[in-house]
What we know:
Blueprint: H1 2-9, H2 22-27, H3 30-55, E1 60-62, E2 68-70, H4 75-81, H5 97-128, H6 130-143, H7 153-156, H8 161-172, E3 182-183, E4 188-190, E5 194-196, E6 201-202, H9 206-210, H10 255-272, E7 273-276, E8 290-291, E9 297-298, E10 305-308
Antiparallel strand pairs: 1-2, 3-6, 4-5, 7-10, 8-9
Helix pairs in contact: 1-3, 3-5, 5-8, 5-10
Amino acid sequence: MFTELTTLLGLFPAKHFVPRLAWLDKASGLDARVERNYEELDRFLERVLEEHRHDSGGDRASDGDGGGRKECANFVDILLSLGDGEDDGSVGMFLSRDNLKAIILDMIVGATDTISTSLEWAMAELVKNPKAMKRAQEEVREAAGGGAEKVAEEDVERTEYLKAVIKETLRLHPPLPLLIPRETTREVVLRGGYEIPAGTRVVVNAWAIGRDPRSWEEPEGFFPDRFLLGCSVDFRGHDFGLIPFGSGRRGCPGAELAAVTLEVTLAHLLHEFDWALPGGMKGELLDIAETPGLTVHKKSDLILVPISRNSG
Length: 312
């Protein structure tokens, strides 16, 4: 469902550009695809809300005043506590049923899909570059204490090369190659004499910026080392040569959460297992072609064989 949604979001409906050509979207089947996807998502989100609404009656502990509260409340539970689709005036904030669904959908599409896509690209690039894979694994395992069974979040804080791998992955494969469109509120003249009138819709190509040879040496190669040796380039919007999360007031509010999630998850995968391609295939032959869409996924699925480092 969510793959179809991101695919649809990356298409260009004729009616959005030439309203008189709206019939083309109907004739091509695009309108039917949108309606079908909407109905599937709506049913799914309704089920999520109902499951949490029913579960909220259990797993409660006394709060000391005779009332009750749910232990370990999650994101959906908190949203439901702010309205549950009914305005009873008790909270001072009302979220309608559609509001709740929209927020949950934003979290899934804006966070889950982009993070999982970036993680897949990181693993693909590491498998394709065995030396980088070995170096990242050795760093993570040393930070965790050699024979430690698990890697902790504070261990990940001590890893420099792993963070460089994340940066290089986001440079080559930003999860959203075209950032969310913007509209200029006033006339702007950029360096070089480029005039952008007020009211212009601007689409920033983060993918092209990350591969610009004027900013990056060997831009098509995977070289995490470029971010070491005192390099201060960051991906949180301060350096315009690397903006996978956008920049400024309209930058992604979840950039910090995404960075931590990517680092910790990748650290666990590298710490717990060695990785190989099926059939003894060499990493250098791995296809890393991209598929177009709102989120850029690998054209072919990444299939890896996990080998426990304690198996032998």
